[in-house]
Specification:
By secondary structure, the chain is mainly alpha-helical. Helices cover 47% and strands 10% of the residues. It has a 3-stranded antiparallel sheet. A two-stranded antiparallel sheet has the order 4-5. The model has no long low-confidence stretch (mean pLDDT 83). The structure holds zinc ion.
């Protein structure tokens, strides 16, 4: 059998953070064992993106990490199953090939630079935490579980939706608030919302799509587009006064 390479020392800062996180899980925690959010953050004190790397292991590399008690800071987790050996260069090469930068951009464009689940665009504040949203392109069915590296199997999600985290409030009071809010919407908006609910994703309106695409341009390009639009608006106003 072709012995899989052993994970490197997770303390080795020359190695990428995802690999270090995987190595820490595999060697310091061990398959089947539990660990806390605090232990994870004690092991990687200088790194604010360690939660994201953990999520990458879960969603992209087939690492089965169960989370008990929802709140991130108090979470107890279990490494139920070790996934892909991300420390193995052979594996990394294989994985890289599965999504190129161009492919990623194509998916972002297709999805209008918005999370297909909640509709947020990059940099917008999350409603619950206020932290800025980051957009990620991921596989619907993970490659490690037989998912294809095709466009149909790729989707744009914000970091929140990607992690599968839900707002923590699930009290009866909150249910009532949301229900009331939904029922008070104008009928036309209710119809649209119902369609989103049925589809499980929010389809952006043309103006929202335009805004999200605009926001994705460089400052120079934004200036250019803004000027074009200003001219357009002015021309339309002129045409109106002439009538
Ligand atoms: Zn989202």
């Amino acid at each position: 059998m072709d012995a899989a390479r052993k994970p490197p020392d997770w303390r080795d800062t020359k190695v990428g953070l995802k690999v270090r996180a995987a190595a820490w899980l595999a060697t310091a925690v061990g398959e089947g064992n539990t660990f806390s959010w605090k232990q994870l953050h004690d092991a990687f004190p200088q790194t604010t993106t360690i939660d994201r790397r953990l999520r990458d292991l879960r969603t992209e590399h087939g690492w089965d990490i169960k989370v008990f008690r929802g709140a991130p800071e108090g979470a107890e987790m279990q490494l139920a199953k070790i996934g892909d050996p991300v420390w193995d260069p052979a594996h990394t090469r294989r994985h890289r090939r599965s999504m190129s930068a161009a492919e990623r951009m194509a998916i972002l464009e297709r999805d209008g630079f918005r999370c297909t689940s909640c509709g947020i665009s990059a940099g917008e504040p999350h409603l619950d935490s206020g932290g800025p949203a980051q957009l990620e392109v991921s596989h619907v069915a993970p490659i490690s579980e037989g998912g294809k590296a095709s466009e149909e199997n790729m989707v744009t999600l914000c970091n929140r939706c990607h992690a599968g985290t839900r707002a923590l409030g699930n009290s009866a009071a909150q249910l009532e608030t949301v229900s009331r809010y939904v029922c008070d919407l104008p009928a036309r908006q209710q119809t649209i919302l119902l369609a989103w609910m049925a589809k499980g994703e929010r389809s952006p309106s043309p103006i929202e799509r335009a805004w999200a695409m605009y926001r994705h341009l460089s400052p120079e390009q934004q200036k250019n587009v803004r000027q074009k639009l200003a001219d357009e608006v002015e021309r339309a106003a002129d045409a109106e006064t002439e009538v």
